[in-house]
Design a protein that fits this description.
With 251 residues, the chain is of the alpha/beta class. Helix content is 44%, strand content 17%. The chain has eight helices and seven strands. A seven-stranded parallel β-sheet has the order 3-2-1-4-5-6-7, with helices on both faces. Helix 1 packs across helix 8 and helix 4 runs parallel beside helix 6. The chain is globular, with a radius of gyration of 17 Å.
Length: 251
């Protein structure tokens, strides 16, 4: 029997990269899956890849009306939730001096406000023993040029996991977070950096990772599964770095 047999799991940003790898693994472990995304083509592809029984919903994490409609749809279809993975996010690079209010609001809206209100609206559906996993980033810990807003928003997510752990522990809901290092996913292509320059940046980045390689989405999915399942039943309010040693090892 799978580690998530009979569980209902909602994964935001579940149509590509870490989210899709997590949805695939969760389904293999017996969960019924709901994934969200913003791109219709990616949503259709994910639904086909994940197979029968998967629900894929177009939802923008930065729009509270979309968040409300998403949770209503989950309630109508399933009635409850056992696992919530907050993975949807944006990570565009921009120099500090070039950041304007619109850019600031966009990143904060998707990377912090969206997860905050998704949890709030999903709370009535979360069952005792449920697990909420927030996806942060090592950028919130060690700092990267042109990542000021992204890092700050993700740092707020880590804080949110700890605060909600303290406030809601009596409900039997666990909140933890995963802090990925550089992972080989499509998000790099959406940073706005030209492809040739991006390739050089990624090669340079590998030299700063003690394991000298990028992570794989499947590796992050296994860590998320650990926090989502009863394997981590005595873990609360923690942030696990899955980063090839970037934040913990000098090599």
């Amino acid at each position: 029997m799978g580690k998530l047999a009979g569980k209902i799991a909602l994964i935001t940003g579940g149509t590509s990269g870490i989210g899709l790898a997590t949805a695939t693994l969760f389904k293999q472990e017996g969960a019924r899956i709901i994934v969200t995304g913003r791109d219709e083509q990616a949503i259709a592809q994910a639904e086909r890849a994940l197979g029968d029984g998967t629900v894929a919903i177009r939802s923008d994490a930065g729009k509270l009306a979309d968040v409300a409609q998403l949770i209503d749809a989950v309630k109508d279809r399933f009635g409850s939730l056992d696992v919530l993975v907050l993975n949807a996010g944006l990570a565009p690079a921009r120099p500090f001096e070039a950041i304007d209010e619109a850019f600031f609001d966009q990143i904060i809206g998707v990377d912090f406000k969206g997860p905050f209100f998704t949890i709030q609206k999903a709370l009535p559906l979360l069952q005792p023993g449920a697990s909420v996993v927030l996806i942060t980033t090592i950028v919130a810990k060690i700092g990267f040029p042109q990542g000021t807003i992204y890092g700050a928003a993700k740092a707020a997510l880590g804080s949110l996991a700890r605060s909600l752990s303290a406030e809601l522990v009596g409900r039997g809901i666990r909140f933890n977070s995963i802090s990925p290092g550089p992972v080989d996913t499509p998000i790099f292509a959406r940073t706005g950096v030209p492809p040739q320059m991006l390739e050089g940046i990624l090669e340079q980045m590998k030299t700063t990772i003690p394991m000298r390689r990028l992570g794989e989405a499947s590796e992050l999915a296994k860590a998320i599964l650990f926090l989502a399942s009863s394997d981590s039943s005595f873990i609360l309010g923690e942030e696990i770095a899955v980063d090839g040693g970037m934040t913990g090892v000098k090599a």
